[in-house]
Amino acid sequence: MGDLVEVPPDFFIGYAPANLALSHLSMVTPEIADVLVVPLGEINPKDGHPGGNFQYNRNSKLIRLPEFNEHDREQIGKLGGLRKLVAGFLKIKPDSVTDEMFVVFTIAHEIGHAIDASSKTFEEWQEIGLKEEGIMTRYKWLPLKKRIAGYRQLPREKYADDFALARLNKLL
Ligand SMILES: [Zn+2]
User: Among 12, 18, 85, 110, which residue has the fewest nearby CB atoms (within 10 Å)?
Assistant: First the structure.
């Protein structure tokens, strides 16, 4: 566990580009200094949110991230939509998207959620969550690829993606 402001040497993430991105983002976004970064555990590549997640509790805000070891990076890399998204932004081929690009994008995406949440109350955040759950229920019978594409169009996901993409060039 660690604060966003400082990445201690024994931090659970051992992948240097990930720690650099976290340190940089925490310096330029003081409004999320109260957010804790905690280990995610196993990655599910079928999840629309495979690289991590953000949780807004009544008394705390958490970003869960994997260690970004080789196995984690392989799992994250399997999500085709993510590769395409990052490739489109950087104007390169999806095959040319490196681990570092994924990882930095994933971290910036979760930070984007935290920034979005910093301007909302717990109740407001919950209300938006309920609306989004309703939308996702309608996507339930769609094939996985379409479901993930629909998920990424949800307002909070769009916000986090836009934040991450806007910072990607500076972080790589
Ligand atoms: Zn997200």
Answer: 12
- Residue 69 phi, psi (nearest 5): -75, 180
What are the domain boundaries of the chain? Answer: 2-171
CA of 17 to the centre of ligand 1 (A): 20
- Whole-model pTM: value is 0.90
Q: Quickly list DSSP for 17-79.
A: HHHHHHHHHHHH-GGGTT-EEEE--S--TTSSSTT-EEEE-SS-EEEEE----HHHHHHHHT-
Q: Give the distance (Å) from ligand 1 centre to CA of residue 5.
A: 21
Ligand 1 is an ion; residues with CB less than 5 A from it: 157, 160
Q: State in Å: Cα 105 to ligand 1 middle.
A: 11
